[in-house]
Write a structure and sequence with these properties.
Layout lengths: L1 E7 L6 H17 L4 E3 L11 H7 L7 H13 L3 E8 L6 E8 L5 E6 L5 E3 L5 E3 L21 E3 L8 H9 L4 E3 L6 H19 L2 E4 L3 E3 L7 E3 L3 E3 L5 E4 L13 E7 L1 H10 L14
Parallel strand pairs: 1-2, 2-3, 8-9, 9-10
Antiparallel strand pairs: 1-15, 3-4, 4-5, 6-7, 10-13, 11-12, 13-14
Bound molecules: N-(4-carboxy-4-oxobutanoyl)-L-cysteinylglycine.
Amino acid sequence: MAIAAVGQICSTASMTHNLSQCVTLIQKAASAGAKALFLPEASDYIAPTAAETISLVQPASTSPFVLGLRSAARAASLPISVGIHEPSTSSKRVKNILIWIDANGEIAHRYQKLHLFDVEIKDGPILKESNSVEPGMEIPEPFDSAVGKVGSMICFDLRFPEISLALRKRGAQLLLYPSAFTVPTGIAHWSTLLRARAVETQSYVIAAAQCGMHNEAGTRRSYGHSVIVDPWGKVIAELGGAAEDGSWKEPEIAVADIDLDYLEKVRREMPLLRRTDVYPEIK
Ligand SMILES: O=C(O)CNC(=O)[C@H](CS)NC(=O)CCC(=O)C(=O)O
C-alpha cells in the first residue's frame, strides 16, 4: 500500500502565484507520507483569453513554474503529476500536457491532451479550447510509479471511455484526469463520469481539479471537487467546491491508500471479458 495525494488549487494568470500554491501542496503531501502528488490541469496558469494563453507559454525546459516544481519535487523526494502548457513546434497554438516529474526532479513522462473542449452551452459556458490548443496524436504507454502503473489523460478526455479502456488494456492501474471542469458540467457529470471510468476499468481514478474563480473579471470559474475513486467505484478521498461567489481560499490536498492487492481482487472476482468476437476490440 502507498499513499497518493490529490491536490486542488486555483490557478490564475500569475505563474509565481500558481507555483507557490503547488509548492505548499508538495509540502503538505510530503508531511502526509504520500508517495506521489497529483495536481490539476493547467496548474501553470489559466488565462482569461486564448491570446493570453498563447502569449504566456514557455518551454518546460526554461519555465520558472516547471523549474520551481522540479526543485521542490527533488527537495521533498516526491514524484508529481502536473498539468502545464507547452509551445507547439508546428503551429501558433500551445499544447495542453500532463508531465510526470520524478523524485529526482526529472521530467520522466509527457501526455498531450487528445480531446479538446469546444462547447457552446446555452446560458452556460462558451469555451473553444481549439482556438489556443493543438490536440495530441497518441496514447503514451502507462508507466510505473510507487503508487501503481499510471495512465495519463486530461479533463475533457474523461468523456471518452475508449482512451481509458485502451490504457487499462495496456496495464494501467491508476487513471489520471487532472481537470478544470466548468461548474455547470461539473454539477451535471463530474462525479458520475469519474466513478464510471473507475468501475468499468476496475482501476483507481485520481482527478485533481482546479477550483474557484480564475480571474478578477469573473469570466472563468472551475468546479473543484477533486477525488480519488477506488476500483469498485467508491470515493476514498474528496475535496469540496468554491463558495457561492466563487471564492475559495486555501490550496489543499486529500489522501488515500492505493491498494493494488484490492485492485487485483476486484479484477479477479468480476472478470470483465470483452466480447471481441462480436464487437471490434479497442486497439
Ligand atoms: O484553459 C486552459 O488553459 C486549461 N484548459 C481547460 O481548462 C480545459 C479546456 S477550456 N477545460 C476542460 O477541458 C473542461 C472540460 C469540462 O468542463 C467538461 O468536459 O465538462
